[in-house]
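STRUCTURE:
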């Protein structure tokens, strides 16, 4: 069985664009946005960074 949960935080630019395109033109209430934000914050706390990737550059 395939593992669909992300292994690391880093995503390719192509994947980021696909996610962005699929989320467009979907209205959400402010309360729904807050719940999504809280859920994503707790989710990303559990996903480790990729030990083989370069650190992100700061601008």
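SEQUENCE:
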């Amino acid at each position: 069985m395939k593992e669909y949960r992300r292994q690391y935080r880093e995503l390719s630019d192509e994947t980021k664009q696909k996610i962005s395109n699929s989320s467009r033109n979907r209205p959400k209430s402010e309360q729904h946005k807050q719940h999504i934000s809280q859920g994503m914050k707790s989710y990303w706390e559990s996903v480790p960074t990729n030990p083989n990737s370069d650190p992100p550059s700061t601008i």
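REMARK: The helical segments are 13-23, 30-45.
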